[in-house]
Amino acid sequence: MQTTKLGFLALLIGGMATQSLACDTGLGLNADLHGNRFFPADNAWNQPIDTKPIDPNSTVLINQMGSGVALHPDFGANAYWADGKPFGIPYVVVSGTTPKVPVSFTYSSESDPGPYPIPANAPIESGSDRHVLVVDQDHWKLYETWNSYPQANGSWDVGSGAIFDLSSNALRPAGWTSADAAGLPILPGLVRYDEVYLHKAINHAIRFTVAQTRKAYIAPARHFASSNTSTNLLPMGARLRLKASYDISQFSPPAQVILKALKKYGMMVADNGSNMYISGTADDRWDDNILNTLKQVHNTDFEVVKMGAMTTK
Q1: Do the beta carbons of residue 167 and residue 140 sit within 8 Å?
Q2: CB of 204 within 8 A of CB of 190?
Q3: Burial class (CB within 10 angstroms; exposed 0-12, middle 13-18, buried 19+) of 160
Q4: pLDDT per residue over 36-85, tens digit each?
Q5: What are the start-end ranges of the E strands in the chain?
Q6: What keyword terms does UniProt attach to this protein (predicted)?
Q7: pLDDT confidence band for 10 (50 / 70 / 90)
Q8: Average of per-residue pLDDT across 15-34
Q9: Of 69, 64, 146, 65, whose CA–CA distance to 111 is shortest?
Q10: HSE toward the beta carbon, residue 79, CA cutoff 13 A
Q11: Residue 107: how many CB atoms within 10 A of its CB?
């Protein structure tokens, strides 16, 4: 990573929260981010939770999902969709000179206005969500859209969109969604190929879904997507971690990278979906046989980290 003088001094004195505005990464589809962290080191996504207390209602919240629900990697090399592309959520890294194009929103009231630096050939997530994730490496900004459709004139029609300053801990306005239901960024929570195979470490929480969520959210989430007020349901932004006692020695080194992250950083509820589905990049370099070994882990092997202040309206 390229650091400014201020950033370098901050590192020397232990101010690990300082992040430079520009980062050296690769360019293009699912590019190597060279270990650069999204957001400052003290951001919620980057905070270890392995020593945090357990929520008093942890067992009930875990069991509400069902009995023996398997952890499920919702990404891989397999051509799951009819378009023949790998499944998961792709991203693209662009330079700061990439032209910005107009973006029209279905839900404009909770979207960050364009233009966005979305390339004409930007990868679109297969399936119904059609997310587009773009990192501007020179300005260190993240642009994310949901339900994204390119237009003949170079513009894009999308459902919603959000822009994140990757050098800041600023949250979206309270009650706002993003390109994700919880009002969170998507890319910082994905399992990426470069992390697992090139750098052999995931230093952030992982995005995941549950079938039913509560009408509530906790920071850093900013939005709920449920009308169910049951206290036995997880709110958006809730954090789970793999129990420290869970033996991961039986797994291959790449799988262990993911499981170690689930122990140290855990996973964060970001959307409604299938229970215990963790998110990662759509990348034909994945080894699906290795990813499928993660299904040996079950919901009861996790615990809920004690939840903070909750917003219910």
Answers
A1: yes
A2: no
A3: buried
A4: 999 999 999 999 999 999 999 999 999 999 999 999 999 999 887 878 89
A5: 28-29, 72-74, 92-94, 103-105, 132-136, 141-146, 149-150, 156-158, 160-165, 206-210, 213-218, 234-236, 239-242, 267-272, 277-279, 302-304, 310-311
A6: Signal
A7: very low
A8: 73
A9: 146
A10: 4
A11: 14
Task: Look at residue 90 and tell me whether its pLDDT is greater than 60.
Answer: yes
Domain ranges of the chain: 44-311
Q: What is the pLDDT of residues 226-268, one digit of tens each?
A: 999 999 999 999 999 999 999 999 999 999 999 999 999 999 9
* Interatomic CA distance for residues 177 and 223, integer angstroms: 5
State whether the Cα torsion 9-52-199-91 is positive or negative: negative
- CA-CA-CA-CA dihedral for 301, 218, 201, 300, to nearest 10: 0
Read off the pTM: 0.92
Mean per-residue pLDDT, 103-123: 97
Kindly give the pairing relationship between strand 267-272 and strand 239-242. Answer: antiparallel
Cα–Cα distance between 291 and 288 in angstroms, integer? 5
pLDDT of 72: 98
